[in-house]
Every structure is written in structure tokens, then in C-alpha cells.
Amino acid sequence: APQAIKKVALELAAKSANIVLADADFSRAVTQGVMTLMLNSGQNCNAPSRMLVPAGRLDEVEALAVAALARVRVGDPLDVATTMGPLANGAQFERVQRLIEAGIAEGAKLVAGGAGRPEGVARGFFARPTIFSQVKNSMTIAREEIFGPVLSILPYRDEDEAVAIANDSPYGLSGYGSAGDPARARAVARRLRTGNVHINGAPVDMAAPFGGYKQSGLGREWGAWGIEEFLEVKAMLGYGEGD
């Protein structure tokens, strides 16, 4: 691209924050956050891999997250009972294992899962669905995109700290926010330095522009903004003279 001065659009890494505000329906928000992360074995660029929750409700969130994780069944993708298949390849499997081990070594609380394959799975690139709690935003598992079924739960004191933690990332592709008061959720969403924010579980909208801030990429796809990425602008100066 540089040799020919080609315009590029890049969708790169992400470490999306999922802020659960104090007035949210915690059962719904936490369960949805866990299940959304586990889609495609965690291999989604916009996965809500950092769940930010009020510090005083951390125990409750852990219990809800573990209960949600119990619904995930890892195994043969051809088995109709399976809800999660393997990772893409051996290199990705080894990366996920290294990052899980880093979380343990750096002192995060392992709530569920861990390194290795799930119980009863002897071969293949199957990772254990894993939940860490009491995660600090300086930890490796909170800084690096794992691209696997690994959730980090981070406590916050108030909304300002939640927004600060969410924005304290080199990435900014997507974000999530839940609140009982939609206006409160929208106010927090406006403060997030990220290209997309899903409010109260709103799904992906192919008519909305998709793309990131910071090291999450350049440009947008989908909707009118996605079409404009393929266009060039021409200014015709003096066009109206002589009419």
C-alpha cells in the first residue's frame, strides 16, 4: 500500500470494556456479557472481554458469571449439544494458554476454567472457558487481546473510574454499557473512546458504521460510512462562474 500510495482501512485488535452500572439488571447484564464473549470461542474482534462492575457487588457478579458459564458446552462442533468449538489453530491455542497462565501468575482471581483443555477433551485446540476476577487494568490479561474464551472482571468505585478504566487501553474498537436508566447508559457511552458502543444489549447493526479508535484501526465499514471509504473527493473551484 505505501509503494502505490494506496488508501487503506484497517480493523485491528481490541480489548472492549463492558460497563455494568449500579442500576443495571445484573442478572441480565452479566449473563449476556458472558455469553456474548463466548461466541465463536471468544474469537470476535468486538468481544466484551473486560467486564467492569461496582466493587461492592463483585461477589454477586462472580456468582452470576459462573452460573452463565455453566451453559457453555465445549466439544465437537458436529454435536448438536455443543455450544463452543475449538480455537482456530494451534498457535492461537498456545497463545490463549500463555495468557491464562499470565493472569494466574500476576495475581488475578481464577473464578472458573483455567489452562489446559476442558474436562473430557483429550485432543484438539479446545480451550477452557475461563473467568478471572479482581483484575487490575495493568495486568496482561486486561491489556492484551486474548482472542479466546477468557473474561476479565474489573471492579470500579464510581462511574468516573469506570470510564477511566475503560478508556485506559491502546485500543478502542467496541464497548458495552448497561443501566436501568437508558439516559444514564447513553451518558456513559458518549464518554467512551471507542468506535462502537452497545447500550443495554443492543445487537450489531449492519447499517451503522463499524471501526475503531486508536490502535484498533483506521476507517469504517458497513452503512453509508463504509461506502464512503471507497470514494475520493473532488473540489471543482469556480464551477458556477459564467452561469
TrEMBL record:
GO MF assignments: oxidoreductase activity, acting on the aldehyde or oxo group of donors, NAD or NADP as acceptor
Pfam family, one: Aldedh
InterPro entries: Ald_DH/histidinol_DH, Ald_DH_C, Ald_DH_N, Aldehyde_DH_dom
Protein origin, superkingdom: Bacteria
UniProtKB keywords: Oxidoreductase
Aldehyde dehydrogenase domain mapped to chain residues: 3-235
Family membership: Belongs to the aldehyde dehydrogenase family.
Protein name: Aldehyde dehydrogenase family protein
Organism: Thauera aminoaromatica
